[in-house]
Amino acid sequence: MLYVTLLLDGIAYGMVLFIISVGLTVTMGLMRVVNLAHGAFAMTGGYVAATLVKAGVPFFLAAALSAGAVGLLGAGAELTIYRPLYRKGELAQALMTFGLAFVAIAVLTMIYGARLEPLPLPKALAGLVDIGYRTYPAYRLFLIAVGLVLAVILWRVIDGSLYGARLRAAVDNPRMARAVGINVNRLFTVTFGAGCALASLGCVIGAELLPLEPFYALRYLVLFLVVVGVGGYGNFKGSFIAALTIGMIDSAGKFFFPGVAAYLLYGIVLALLLWRPHGLVPPRSAG
Amino acid sequence: MAGARLGALWHVVPWVTALVVYYTAGGYLSLGTNVLIMILLTLSLDLVLGHAGIVTLGHAAYFGFGAYAAGNFAVHVHNGSLAGLLFAGALTGVFGLLTGALILHTEGVTLMMLTLAIASLVAEFANHAHFLTGGDDGLQGIRMAPLLGLFRFDLYGHTAYLYSLGVLCAWFVATWRIVRSPFGRSLDGIRQSPRRMRAIGTPVWRRLVAVYGLSAAMAGSAGALSAQTTRYASLSALSILVSGTAVVTLALGGTRRLYGAFLGATVYGVVQSFAAEIDPFRWMLVVGLMLMGVVLFAEKGLMSLVDLGRNALVGAFRRAARR
Amino acid sequence: MSAPAALSVRGLCKSFGALAVAQDVDLDLAPGARVGLIGPNGAGKTTIVNLLTGMLRPDAGSITISGAPIDRLKPEARVRRGLARTHQISNLLAETSARENVAIAIAERENIAWRLLRYGRRWGACLDEADAHLAVLGIAADADRAAAEWPYGKQRLLEIAIALALRPHVLLLDEPAAGVPALEAHVIHEALDHLPADVAILMIEHDMDLVFRFVREIVVLVQGRVLTRGTPAEIAADARVRAVYLGRSMA
Predict the structure, then answer these.
(1) pLDDT tier at B269 (50, 70, 90 boundaries)?
(2) Which residues of A touch B112 (CB under 8 A)?
(3) From the DSSP assignment, how many helices (H) and strands (E) are in chain B?
(4) What is the nearest CA distance from C111 to chain B, expressed in angstroms?
(5) What is the mean pLDDT of residues B296-315?
(6) C121, exposed or middle or buried, with CB in 10 Å at 0-12, 13-18, 19+?
(7) Nearest to A209 by CA among A127, A119, A130
(8) Is some CB atom of chain C closer than 8 A to the CB atom of A287?
(9) Do A245 and A228 touch, CB atoms closer than 8 A?
């Protein structure tokens, strides 16, 4: 029964990672841009939501509004500073987005200060729920539910909608997609913005697990990159599985090997990436 | 051949500048030493990232490793500076060879993530291994014997500065030769096209591991200098901030221009120290904006601007000489 | 007993899922051979080259050079056994000068490319030999310029120069005339005419003029399988080959 609890903890954590990282994996797979500022976008959403909540806005509305705001911010950034990067190669992208992350950390510190920023959950989520053999935090169940719902929605969108078809085409072969009349540029902008909006949402609802502070952008960047790397760039299904796996490893590690939990995580990530450098889950198209 | 002689003259400028700083810096000499150490770290990154094309965001792991190695050596074994430096450099080099051998089968973004993972592992280990690192408090009680038995490490940092300058000079000469050697040229080829290099029989992995180990030894030396001259080693030496700063200074100065490391580290060091006095976080803003600016507008770094200035100067000089 | 074949391939097979790109391919190249590998687009010709060089791992089959198996060797190791290739799309060190592109290959061949110390004289010898290789192909001019600055036709010749500088036993030419404007193609043809006589050459080409002029044996590959092989005259007369190319005139 203990294992069930650990499993749930791990899945909840994994869901947060998934929601934040899914935007990054699509961006890296689609635009093949190394975006080290992804955590910064997530974090910005968290701070916007925290400010709204402090001003009296209800939690869920704040989450939605901040996601929208960050989505627009992301789209704007894509149009202005990310566009020139596509041609410049991985190093330039890594550097510039790294610089962007620095800027975000600095700006948010100047506005909010360097301490942890509280993002209080609504009362509805703060309680315990009876799940049969014990009571369990409603918050974690909420995370799991939201994660599943989002995963299903994204899956339907990517597999079933016209936008999704265009997205997949552009990921597989951007030049061909353009030739067929897909407005790849607009696709990039919309997708980047959507990815940032999702990251913001993940940061807001996951703030109990990943506390909000200015260094959030770089502190958890490794985790997001790991989810993307282990799942495979552009591999939506892979990032889902990778996020859950990482979440469960982390929660199991923290319980069974409290001292070395972090080693375990990074060590396993190391092993996984060495074993399958292209990601754990083979992409849709073989070869 | 006046051009060649003129070219050799430019070499003198950075070193003369360093000596001028020694005599004029006054209270800022310890900042100068920090800049010299930063230059060495950036140089090590230029070798592995600029020349060989290994995108690493975890080079601080080797800087910190060297710092703790030198610190522990001074505290537990022998507090001679050169002995500690050699020990730390060599040990870090071996560590670099081992980790490099592990991860250099991969490339691109996966490799970058692996460097991050390794750096995280090292930082975690340091966090736990209190007996080696002192944990959050850092490694204290480092007391260095006089350099070469003659020069005491004085409070004003005179010995520290010249010591660091000497070490930097030695590594600079080594790097200069490495870059121009067939080994260095093959690395440059690997950066441009690993596929092409495999097609001519280059053992790519072996070369990359070798340069990674060399670079680690260099970064470890920088860390050792840091521990020896400040008599302190802390966990911050292993942080992503140090890795990021090294990358920033490299980009600022310009990759594959060995003096770029000098320029980038100096600009960064000066900006950071003055800006940090005003506002601890404003310097992050400035550095972040500088980095973005460099990538978007001056891709070859500040050295390319120096080139422009230099070419203009040389052109004017030639025109004047012709009259 | 005759000398072992320079290159010998038996039963080479490779599939990507349900798609079989190489099925039971056999090849024999004697030293000095001039063999052309032709076939319609998608026949698997470049796949064969990638299997030979080691970029792809075969599902079955064996590859030997001068009698020694090379199946387990990485691509760079196969080069040291005497296998060199040119690429269908020029794959040069773009920022490096043409001369150095060749010199680095020579340095690898001579095993001095790892050197950090005392390399001056030996590197100089590599540069000199590089000039010689460039001169043989008539591209010694502009040897100082970056390879990316060369016109594409000369880049193709530079590819060949680099491959030759490795002094291979077996040379794989992957569409050497590809991308070269028709007006300049004769330069490539002439260069190929003067390749060393003792090197076994396997050439993939679509340019039938080049194939018929240059090779002494042709292997026809269709959907990963060897359809037939023979002299150029035999292949030109073969109705099946004509059918495969669907009306392409090969007279």
Answers:
(1) confident
(2) 34, 90, 94
(3) 14, 0
(4) 9
(5) 74
(6) exposed
(7) A119
(8) yes
(9) no
The letter for the amino acid at A121 is: L
**In angstroms, rounded to a whole number, what is the distance separating the alpha carbons of residues C67 and C192?**
26
Ranges under pLDDT 70 in chain C? 1-3, 246-251
Bridge partner residues of A130 (DSSP): A135
C39 by DSSP, 3-state: which? coil
* In chain B, where the domains are located: 2-322
Q: Is C133 on the interface with B (CB under 8 A)?
A: no
CB contact under 8 A, B244 and A98: yes
Contact between chains at B284 and A106 (C-beta distance less than 8 A): yes
For the four alpha carbons of C190, C193, C196 and C201, in that order, the dihedral sign comes to positive
pLDDT at residue C2, rounded to an integer: 57
Position with higher pLDDT, A265 vs B213: B213
- CB contact, 8 Å: B247 with chain A? yes
d(CA A253, CA C195): 63
What distances in angstroms separate CA A50 from CA A60, A116, A200, B9, one per listed residue? 11, 11, 12, 58
SS3 assignment for C72-128: CCCHHHHHHCCEEEECCCCCCCCCCEHHHHHHHHHHHHCCCCCCCCCCHHHHHHHHH
Q: How far apart are CA B11 and CA B18, in angstroms?
A: 12
Q: Which tokens sit at A6? A: 């650990």
Cβ count near B22 (within 10 Å): 16
**pTM, entire model:** 0.87
**Residue-level pLDDT at B222:** 97
This complex has an ipTM of 0.88
pLDDT score recorded for residue C251: 44
Beta carbons within 10 angstroms of residue B130's beta carbon: 11
Q: Which pLDDT does position B278 carry in this prediction?
A: 66
Low-confidence ranges of chain A (pLDDT < 50): 284-287
Beta carbons within 8 Å of A70's beta carbon, 6+ residues apart = A41, A42, A44, A45, A48, A196, A197, A199, A200
CATH of domain C7-92+163-245: 3.40.50.300
Residue C119 is nearest to which of B181, B188, B193, comparing CB atoms? B181
Place of tokens 């190791």: C77
Crossing angle of helices A38-54 and A184-205, rounded to 10°: 50
Give the residue from chain A lying closest to B301, CA to CA.
A92
- The residue in chain B having the minimum alpha-carbon distance to the alpha carbon of residue A85 is B296
Question: Alpha-carbon distance C113 to B195, whole Å?
Answer: 16
Q: List subunits contacting chain A, requiring 3 or more Cβ pairs under 8 Å.
A: B, C
| Domain made up of A2-117+129-275: CATH architecture | Orthogonal Bundle (1.10)
In this prediction, residue B6 carries a pLDDT of 59
Name chain B contacts of A103, Cβ cutoff 8 Å.
284-285, 288-289, 292
Please tell me what DSSP assigns to residue A212.
Answer: B
Comparison of pLDDT for B122 and A90, the residue scoring more: B122
